[in-house]
Write a structure and sequence with these properties.
- By secondary structure, this protein is mainly α.
- The chain has a domain at 3-220.
- The chain has 21 helices and no strands.
- The protein has helices spanning 3-31, 39-48, 65-82, 92-103, 115-128, 136-142, 146-154, 167-195, 203-220, 238-260, 266-270, 279-282, 285-305, 312-322, 331-347, 360-369, 373-379, 381-395, 399-402, 409-428, 432-438.
- Helix 4 (92-103) runs parallel beside helix 6 (136-142), helix 5 crosses helix 8 (167-195) and helix 6 crosses helix 8.
- The longest helix is centred in the first third of the chain and has 29 residues, at 3-31.
- The protein is globular and about 65 Å long.
């Protein structure tokens, strides 16, 4: 067995333990939430009320903080349990899928609306005659359309104020689950050609176009009025989110330093371009864990500096952004993209743009704009800065395409940015990889 293979296996065991620890932390967090008495009623609202972007599950009318944390735990527990199935391997893509799935547990995803999608991947595994565990990552990516499952399960074809579980709704939810589960693996494989490896949220374009098709069939083609896209946000809880997240990320930093014997090869990891990278295969598990902690604290600092409201949605974006930390994202290659967002936010001060830098839509957008990190890594700081600006300009316009039912809206937007921007970069400039080959 080669050194590289042993490293991947050892890192996989470590990262699986880390993800299980994160899952347990959410259960502990639920008992420290300020509204513990609402834990089960809050979870009930999360599972049955509309999940279309953007619904803040911290808001009492939509859920509760404790119910949200319990939802995090239950969804995380399902994902972690699947990591122990035969055929399952844990790598950078698994970390991406896990934290991305968890991130939406506070705005759009529930332990209920992910179940039909599990059936879909199980059907795909049967067709391919492979163990379900082999397609674990694709299952987690398929949850991008979870809001559509809730919609057809309780509110289709007529949108009402009270959720109604009907035979038609159950049948449609299961059918959509099978369609998504059987098509996402193929679409994700094709997405690489769409963005050429420069969108770390590779499943974003796949989920975006698939949800666009499903939305058109279910609503536009049949002439059914679609729910209005709009954010429903609460006041948030800055103290709870900051304390919970900071504690987790500090523990990751400490654990990474201990396992890595200090900084170790973290210096190499943080200067990696992030282009088509799986840090779990290139660097030690300690370095990967250290990057999780450092990157997480960086995200938390950024949201505090811009004055973000720490709603459930904001907390979710912290973990959605964290998901790429083993797949190409570092503080160095993401920072210029966030600067692009900040620059556009500052233009709002003079009335040149519509959204302030701390507007909820822009807070979420910046999270997924970070998926363009390989552009910074390969083409430099200015290219990353411009990528951030382009993502800011597009991210609030894309939801209309899929009706707000695609949770990976920002990753879809990043793919569109790549489709337009990367060919221009390739035409006029040499990437770092090309310059190294020429040298």
């Amino acid at each position: 067995m080669g050194i590289r293979t042993r490293r991947v296996m050892d890192n996989g065991k470590l990262l699986r333990a880390v993800m299980c620890a994160f899952t347990l932390a959410f259960l502990i967090g639920a008992f420290f939430a300020p509204d513990l008495k609402e834990i089960f009623s809050g979870l009930g609202r999360i599972c049955t009320l509309p999940a279309q972007l953007t619904k803040d599950y911290f808001k009492p009318e939509l859920g509760s903080i404790s119910g949200t944390m319990l939802n995090y735990f239950l969804v995380g527990a399902v994902c972690c349990a699947l990591m122990f199935l035969p055929g399952a391997t844990v790598n950078g893509g698994t970390v991406l899928g896990f934290f991305l799935t968890l991130g939406f547990c506070s705005y759009g995803m529930s332990i209920l609306n992910i179940i039909p999608l599990m059936l879909g991947v199980a059907v795909y595994a049967l067709i391919k005659r492979q163990p379900f565990g082999k397609y674990l990552n694709f299952y987690m990516f398929s949850t991008a359309v979870s809001p559509l499952i809730t919609q057809v399960l309780f509110y289709y074809p007529v949108m009402g104020e009270t959720p109604r579980l009907t035979p038609l709704g159950v049948a449609l939810a299961l059918a959509i689950g099978v369609v998504v589960g059987c098509t996402m693996p193929a679409l994700c494989a094709h997405s690489q050609a769409f963005h050429k490896g420069y969108d770390l949220y590779n499943a974003g374009p796949a989920a975006g176009f698939l949800c666009f098709l499903l939305f058109a069939i279910l609503f536009k083609v049949r002439g059914i009025e679609a729910p209005v896209i709009g954010a429903t946000l609460g006041d948030g809880n800055r103290m709870f989110v900051n304390v919970f997240c900071a504690a987790l990320f500090v523990l990751c930093v400490i654990g990474g330093l201990v396992l890595n014997g200090g900084l170790g090869d973290y210096g190499k990891l943080i200067t990696d371009s992030g282009y088509k990278a799986d840090f779990t295969a290139k660097y030690s598990g300690g370095a990967c864990l250290l990057n999780i902690g450092v990157y997480g604290l960086f995200i938390l600092l950024y949201y505090n500096l811009i004055g973000a409201t720490f709603t459930g949605t904001t907390m979710g974006t912290v973990f959605c952004m964290l998901c790429c930390c083993c797949n190409g994202a570092t503080v160095l290659n993401v920072f210029p993209i966030l600067l692009g967002y900040v620059a556009m936010g500052l233009l709002n001060k003079v009335g040149a743009t519509s959204f302030a830098i701390n507007a909820q839509a822009i807070v979420v957008g910046a999270c997924f704009g970070s998926g363009l990190a390989p552009i910074t890594g390969e083409y430099g700081l200015i290219a990353g800065f411009v990528a951030g600006i382009l993502h800011y300009c597009l991210v609030t316009s894309v939801p209309g395409i899929h009706g707000g039912f695609n949770l990976y809206n920002g990753g879809f937007t990043a793919g569109i940015v790549c489709f337009v921007y990367v060919p221009i970069l390739e035409h006029y400039f040499k990437s770092k990889s090309q310059r190294r080959l020429k040298a």
